[in-house]
Amino acid sequence: MSYKLNISTRKEALIKLLDEIIKRENEIIQALYEDFKKPPFESIATETSYTISELKNTIKNIEKWAKIKNVFPSILNFPSTDYIVKEPYGKVLIIAPWNYPFQLAMCPMISAVAAGNQVVLKPSELTPKTSTIILKIVSKAFLPQHVKVIEGGVDVTQKLLAKRWDYIFFTGSVAVGKIVAKAAAEHLTPVTLELGGKNPCIIDETANLKLAAKRIVWGKFLNAGQTCIAPDYILIQEEMKSHFVDYMKDEITKAYTENPKDSPDFARIINEKNWHRLVSMIEPKKVIFGGQTVIEDLYIAPTLIEENNLDSLIMKDEIFGPLLPIITYKEEKELVKIISKYEKPLALYVFSDDRKFARKTILEHSFGGGCVNDTVIHFANKRLPFGGVGHSGIGAYHGQMSFDTFSHHKGIVKKANWLDLNLRYAPYTNNKISTLKKILNWL
Length: 443
Ligand code: NAD
Hints:
The chain has helices spanning 7-23, 25-36, 40-66, 103-114, 128-141, 154-162, 174-186, 209-221, 241-256, 272-279, 333-339, 355-364, 400-405, 430-442; strands spanning 69-71, 80-88, 91-95, 118-122, 147-149, 167-171, 191-194, 200-203, 233-237, 287-289, 293-294, 299-300, 303-306, 323-329, 347-351, 369-372, 393-394, 407-415. The two termini are 44 Å apart. The chain is α/β, with parallel strands linked by helices and 443 residues long. Helix 1 (7-23) packs antiparallel against helix 3. It folds into 2 domains: 7-195 and 390-409, Aldehyde Dehydrogenase, Chain A, domain 1 (3-Layer(aba) Sandwich); 200-386, Aldehyde Dehydrogenase, Chain A, domain 2 (3-Layer(aba) Sandwich), CATH 3.40.309. The relative contact order is 0.14. It contains 14 helices and 18 strands.
């Protein structure tokens, strides 16, 4: 069944969606709190306001993004007019994770709708309250044949993956990303895979340590470290380490008090399984700050870990929690060796006042995206592509790139009839060959 919607119908539905989200913002914030004590400020900044801003930007630009785009024709086709048509893929499956459960479900859905697709959205089963509110909002704003929310666990996702789709957009772990890619390959379905990885955070001897600590504490302990682009481990010049650790302790205490467990600004681990996974990574003798855990409350304190073994459990996979290993290096050349031990990360951060070093670091390593002298904030610019490379993902989105992700770009040549050059037609004489060569050499 083809389900094509004109731009004004898409826009109307998106305006209705905006209205519903604004009306229910407090319910969304409450649902996020009930799911994993997500602090209201973080819910506003990273979930509701972010989604509203992306939605408003889409509504404002939808006509411009959907427009047929003329491009310069090729001299070989003279005379012609050439253009690109953006066509909806058709039926799109969006699978969302639990860590930013509202935003990471809604934003891809908004762009898929803007681009003219039908959508089935599968929110995460690990954030049931948020999943319910997503279902309520979507069923108010869209007809079920336009956007449908299907709730459920792994079995439901597997059933959905067994069906044929025109596009699959997945956000989640590398392991499940591979399952999605395999299922998509069965029907040659194109995919976007937004995955994770071990994100290095490099600090050299020229860095402003106090400010670096403040920005790292924010980016690491936001959402209790359960952020795909959170710094995963610190690589710091040996002599700077003790000063840096002092600043980090100071900044953690300033942000979350002496007892982060009682701070309303520090979230919880999503479930017992992840709590145990994280706690098993803590080697008590390596803890230099924090380390407290309370299973009943799914609490793990912001924790700094002195790490010197690249093969330890904590250095094996993405941490995805409030544990931060600090590794020292003596010479710059060690950085390449350490970073390239792991798959290409989703993010990389470098703190340095040495512009040459910062630039070299950015160019030298392959990673999804990142920042110089900050963490996480590259996510907020809709003019920057957001996505991974290698094991951290396939494809990128945000802003207009999201609309383009969900559109097939159809290239068209509209040939004029007032002239029909004879060059390309047989018989292929020597004269024609030499003219063709001249034109191709000239192009
Ligand atoms: P996950 O891969 O466990 O789950 C994501 C989705 O996949 C859920 O909806 C779940 O129902 C489904 N799923 C789980 N196991 C499945 C299976 N065996 N077969 C089929 N479907 C299955 O990921 P998560 O725990 O929800 O999220 C955390 C991960 O997501 C981290 O690795 C993080 O880095 C990554 N992430 C990436 C981004 C990004 O933008 N690149 C954003 C957020 C999270």
